[in-house]
Design a protein that fits this description.
Helices cover 45% and strands 18% of the residues. By secondary structure, it is α+β, with helices and mostly antiparallel strands. It has a domain of 52 residues. The strands form three sheets. The protein has a two-stranded antiparallel sheet. The longest helix is centred in the middle third of the chain and has 26 residues. The termini are far apart. The structure holds zinc ion (2 copies). The site of one zinc ion has 8 residues, from helix 1.
């Protein structure tokens, strides 16, 4: 029968540890919390590293959702100083708008 109330079982490593090894009100020991924090940090870094290697000096087009080189984008007011659509999508986009306006013009004429 244990009557030592100075120990607590960690909910992560299931080891009996001194209460001083826990931050107040935490069910996981400091060692485990440290590991969790390290893992989170590592995961975050890995993700950003992956993103960097995918993106590199490419940018994802907001229309065709493909990764394209910077030179495939026109200059704009976006984050990288580039348009959010690639050149070919931007052409399509402009055409669409022109057609919309044309159609509207024709429709107005008919009226
Ligand atoms: Zn633990
Ligand atoms: Zn595109």
């Amino acid at each position: 029968m244990e009557c030592n109330t100075d120990t607590k079982i960690c909910s992560r490593c299931k080891k009996k540890k001194k209460k001083s090894d826990f931050s107040y009100g935490n069910c996981r020991c400091k060692g485990c919390l440290n590991e969790i924090a390290k893992k989170k940090y590592r995961d975050k870094n890995e993700v950003s590293f992956k993103e960097q290697t995918i993106i590199g000096c490419t940018k994802r087009c907001g229309r065709c959702e493909k990764y394209k080189k910077f030179e495939d984008f026109c200059k704009g007011r976006c984050r990288e100083g580039l348009q959010s659509y690639c050149k070919s999508c931007f052409k399509d986009y402009e055409k669409e708008w022109q057609e919309k306006f044309k159609r509207r013009g024709e429709w107005q004429k008919r009226k």
